[in-house]
Design a protein that fits this description.
Length: 323
């Protein structure tokens, strides 16, 4: 078996992971092992696998084919993230928080408020800062500088769900991994920016809380390499300086998950482009996060910060191997 016999389970706003430390590059998982570990009936169960290792031990990164936008010389440690189906993923925003908490557990990082490090990912190096506990966001809260984003033309895609009547406009967002964001609802009261109101008028899908998100959405035109799809209900448009929303997500290689960190960032980036509001509190089925968006005059591109909690659930001794 090419994974260690001892692994850990962690979650960040319900996005759950099997993880382990591999400081010497001994344990590169196979797709079969990942599918087994992440299987919720025959394995441990998770949305994906996180290997904490060094950049030089990640084959596609060390060979220069990883597509990273910042040099790995800035990071001693790397988050090697794989989807539950065994496929390689560029980035996982919730995973950055979970693996940072794991690094603290392993003694690689201080545990005090303000402790920080640079974490390598396939989408570049991410700066992470410990914030302590928060009554809304939960225990072991971290702020992650997710980095740059780029929104495509608003509503240029059409999103459908097989077996569900209706479609909705979708906006492409590059977060280092690909997303399409569909906004299905806005508050009943208050002034709604025209572009946002138009998107909601053109949506004929059911409202977010009752929509079938477990079935893989169809995006037209299709995007090479697939994408995550976010469905969003805006609940407040920035009264008091911050907006709020509720999001559900179907992740490529996973299906519906309780949360998606880069999806939360893509949602906030889209809402920022539509409203100019740069601070968002977003609820998901797994909890709450805060997302800060900054940009210049062009609201379609800028940087995003993600703040939320994480928790280690347990330590597992593996018995046997996949069949």
């Amino acid at each position: 078996m090419s994974v260690p016999t001892q692994v850990f389970k962690a979650q960040a706003t319900g996005n759950d992971f099997v993880m382990y430390a591999d400081p010497d590059g001994e344990f590169e998982p196979t797709p079969q092992e990942i599918r087994w570990l992440c299987d919720r009936h025959f394995g441990i169960g998770a949305d994906g696998l996180l290997r904490l290792t060094r950049p030089g031990f990640v084959r596609d990164v060390s060979s220069g084919s990883g597509g990273c936008d910042r040099g790995m010389a800035e990071a001693e440690w790397f988050m090697d993230y794989r989807n539950a189906d065994g496929s390689v993923a560029q980035m996982c925003g919730n995973g950055t928080r979970a693996i940072t908490l794991f690094a603290q557990h392993c003694g690689l990082l201080g545990t005090g408020i303000g402790s920080e490090w640079d974490l390598g990912t396939r989408a570049g190096v991410k700066h992470v800062v410990a914030q302590g506990d928060d009554p809304l966001l939960g225990d072991s809260v971290f702020t992650v500088d997710i980095g740059g984003f780029r929104c495509g033309p608003i509503g240029e895609y059409q999103v459908a769900v097989p077996g569900v009547t209706g479609t909705a406009p979708g906006t492409y967002v590059d977060m280092g991994n690909p997303h399409v964001v569909s906004i299905l609802g806005v508050p009943d009261s208050g002034e709604v920016p025209p572009a946002l109101a138009r998107l909601v008028r053109e949506s004929t899908l059911p409202e977010v809380r009752v929509l079938d998100v477990g079935t893989k959405p169809v995006v037209d035109p299709s995007i090479p390499g697939d994408q995550n799809v976010e469905f969003v209900q805006v609940t407040s448009l920035g009264e008091g300086g911050a907006g709020s929303a509720f999001m559900r997500v179907n992740e490529r290689g996973c299906g519906e998950t309780l949360s998606c960190g880069t999806g939360l960032c893509a949602t906030a980036a889209t809402l920022h482009a539509l409203t100019g509001v740069g601070e968002w509190g977003i609820a998901v089925r797994g909890g709450h996060v805060r997302v800060g968006v900054s940009s210049g005059e062009d609201l379609s591109q800028g940087r995003v910060r993600l703040t939320g909690g994480a928790r280690i659930v347990g330590k597992i001794e593996l018995q046997g191997s996949p069949r």
